[in-house]
Design goal:
The structure is a single chain. The chain has 444 residues and is α/β, with parallel strands linked by helices. It folds into 3 domains: 4-136 and 304-338, 3-Layer(aba) Sandwich (Rossmann fold); 138-300 and 344-351, Dihydrodipicolinate Reductase, domain 2 (2-Layer Sandwich); 356-440, Alpha-Beta Plaits, CATH 3.30.70. It contains 17 helices and 17 strands. The strands form 2 sheets. Strands 7, 8, 9, 10, 11, 12, 13, 14, 15, 16 and 17 form an 11-stranded mixed β-sheet that branches. β5 (99-102), α6 and β6 (126-127) form a beta-alpha-beta unit. The chain starts with a strand and ends with a strand.
């Protein structure tokens, strides 16, 4: 049988990895897919560089639309990134009857509903395993492997840059700014790391997983997003003393009134496997009612790990290329006509309605009665305290210091109540600096 023909839009780091892995494992992949898979056309602005990668026998052009217009191309791989031209090209490929493989989490998180609707109407597939957690097959697990389950929650370390920074802060006791510069020097962080360190990249991925887990449309605009830029080395040290580690988690959870969708630093018990994921590695924990808790771990970025996911999508599409579109696995795991109904039944909750527990660090005057004032405010708000750690003043500010740190762990409470309580505590004359609040996730 003639190999299925693939057009590649963008042959940068990941695109090069896809081409090389596909060529290196060509026979193994053909045996798995039941048919050969060949990249026969590549579009890249740097034509000479692209030719040096693909060699003879592959047509190289500088116009992505020429790939889409080629009637011989069955599948288009989009590796351009971003929201702009990538969106236009993906929609044009779908309109031309091409299947699409993409690693573009930003595009799917923001415009996924439009893209999946267009693909469904045209009877083509959009595959996106590489969009979340690189080489970890978490999309496949949520769409197919866990399909018997009512998913209760997902929590993931899904950004390698921030996990590397937090690991270094913990290991070396350094503050965020120092470690960020080192991460940039080593190539773990971009020159402009905003999307990573502010949690946006993780929120794109969490949005996609939320849609797959709960059968709701992608709703990035409803996600709560908080990065790691305000974390201090002191908080990482105190968390360690209390038996926790701080990780940037993407969390989506089924709640009584809807779905939680949030990204923020979290204290995680050190005994949890996910708390021990270090460096630039990724990990995702999924809890389903039938299977219980499952963990998916591996490289979340890099040329060949991401290429592994892209090629897995190519194989899936090749296997299903001639199948009845009505009997393929839906893009978002649930049948398309059920998504709008689920959006009404399972709305994404505002952060004020989220229920979790908290770590609070207060820089306070070292004098009698301060602890009683603080705990009195929490009690008045109906917030129960789990643990209190008060440092000696000379540990915090040196000998003769008149300031100390008060660390409080709470039991579960609603975020809106905690916001009000923090405002009251901040107004106390004995509270000398902005209160640090980090959410705590037991992940039981």
């Amino acid at each position: 049988m003639k190999p299925i023909q693939v057009g590649l839009l963008g042959i940068g780091t990941v695109g090069s990895g896809v081409f090389q892995v596909l060529r290196r494992n060509e026979e193994e992949i053909r045996r798995r897919a039941g048919r050969g898979i060949a990249i026969t056309m590549v579009a890249d602005l740097d034509v000479e560089r692209a030719r040096s990668i693909v060699g003879e026998g592959v047509q190289v052009v500088n116009d992505a639309r020429a790939v889409i217009a080629n009637p011989e191309i069955d599948i288009v791989i989009e590796l351009i990134g971003g929201y702009g031209i990538a969106k236009a090209l993906v929609l044009e490929a779908i309109a031309a009857g091409k299947h699409v493989v993409t690693a573009n989490k930003a595009l799917l998180a923001v415009h996924g509903s439009e893209i999946f609707a267009a693909a469904s109407a045209r009877g083509v597939m959009v595959a996106f395993e590489a969009a979340v957690a690189g080489g970890i097959p978490i999309i496949k697990a949520l769409r197919e492997g866990l399909t018997a389950n009512r998913i209760q929650w997902i929590a993931g370390i899904i950004n390698g840059t921030t996990n590397f920074i937090l690991s270094e802060m913990r290991d070396k006791g350094l503050d965020f700014d120092v470690v960020l510069k080192e991460a940039q020097r080593l190539g773990y962080a971009e020159a402009d790391p905003t999307f990573d360190i502010e949690g946006v990249d993780a929120a794109h991925k969490a949005t996609i997983m939320s849609a797959l887990a709960f059968g709701i449309p992608v709703q990035f605009d409803k996600a709560y997003v908080e990065g790691i830029t305000q974390l201090a080395a002191a908080d990482i040290k105190y968390a360690e003393q209390l038996g926790y580690r701080i990780k940037l988690l993407g969390i989506t959870k089924r709640a009584d009134k809807g779905v939680e969708l949030r990204v923020h630093p979290s204290l995680v018990p050190a005994k949890r496997l996910i708390a021990n994921v270090e460096g630039a590695m990724n990990a995702v924990v999924v809890h389903g009612d039938a299977v219980g808790t499952t963990l998916y771990y591996g490289k979340g970025a890099g040329a060949e790990p991401t290429a592994s996911a892209v090629i897995a999508d190519l194989v899936d599409i090749t296997r299903l290329h001639t199948a009845d579109p009505e009997h393929r696995v839906p893009h978002l795991a649930f049948q398309p006509h059920t998504l709008s109904q689920a959006k009404d039944e399972l709305p994404v909750l505002p952060m004020s309605e989220v229920v979790t527990s908290y770590y609070l660090r207060l820089r306070v005057a070292d004098q009698a009665g301060v602890l009683a004032q603080v705990t009195g405010i929490l009690a008045g708000a109906g917030i129960s305290i789990d643990a209190v750690l008060q440092r000696e003043a000379d540990e915090v500010g040196g000998e003769g210091s008149t300031q100390t740190d008060l660390i409080i762990l709470t039991h579960d409470t609603r975020e809106g109540l905690m916001d009000a309580a923090i405002a009251q505590m901040q107004a106390l004359p004995t509270v000398l600096a902005p209160i640090t609040r980090i959410r705590k996730e037991e992940l039981n």
